[in-house]
Amino acid sequence: MAEGEFKIIGKPVPLIEGREKVSGEYKYVDDIPAELHAKILRSPHPHAIIKRIDTSKAEKLDGVEAVLTHHDVPKRLVPRGAARAFYILEDHVRFAGDEVAAVAATSKAIAEEALDLIEVEYEMLPAVFDPEEAAKEDAPK
């Protein structure tokens, strides 16, 4: 191939789905009915360790397809747009609202009901809410 000759780069690309997009007929992901609905169980505590988590009742609920906890996901760092990456669904919750478990079910109502059936036992850890307190040497990390 001679210098400057490319098969694709610099060439017009036909928009195969152009007519469908302009007419509104094109199907986007949000246009496809959901087969499963996911819900996340979140920690009510600002800083804790999950000592025990029992998902057996949620797993037995009709319509629940999957329940995931920190036991079920690989321990791989995931960036969250913060200063540092975190593990997804880990046993150490660092803020009220941190993810504890995930449920996939055939309806939103069933997924929400399954969240209520998950039993979690937490060991509370000290939390600091003031920047000046956090800067002290003896402050919890």
Supply the CATH architecture of the domain at 33-124: Alpha-Beta Complex
SSE order in H/E notation?
HEEHEEEEEHEH
Helical proportion? 10-25%
What is the beta-strand fraction? 25-35%
Count the DSSP helices.
4
The CATH class of the domain at 33-124 is Alpha Beta
What is the assigned CATH homologous superfamily of the domain at 33-124? Aldehyde oxidase/xanthine dehydrogenase, a/b hammerhead
Distance between the termini: 60 Å
Q: Provide the CATH topology of the domain at 33-124.
A: Aldehyde Oxidoreductase, domain 3
Largest β-sheet summary: 3 strands, antiparallel
Biggest sheet strand order reads 1-7-3
List keywords for this structure.
141 residues, alpha+beta, Aldehyde Oxidoreductase, domain 3, three-stranded antiparallel beta sheet, 4 helices, 18% helix, 26% strand
Task: Give the arrangement of secondary structure elements.
Elements: H1 18-23, E1 37-42, E2 48-54, H2 56-60, E3 64-68, E4 77-78, E5 86-87, E6 92-93, E7 99-105, H3 108-117, E8 119-124, H4 131-135
Antiparallel strand pairs: 1-7, 2-6, 2-8, 3-7, 4-5
Q: Could you describe the 3D structure shown?
A:
The protein has helices at 18-23, 56-60, 108-117, 131-135; strands spanning 37-42, 48-54, 64-68, 77-78, 86-87, 92-93, 99-105, 119-124. By secondary structure, it is of the alpha+beta class. It has a domain at 33-124: Alpha-Beta Complex (Aldehyde Oxidoreductase, domain 3). Strand 4 (77-78) and strand 5 form a beta hairpin. The radius of gyration is 23 Å and the shape is flat. The mean pLDDT is 88.
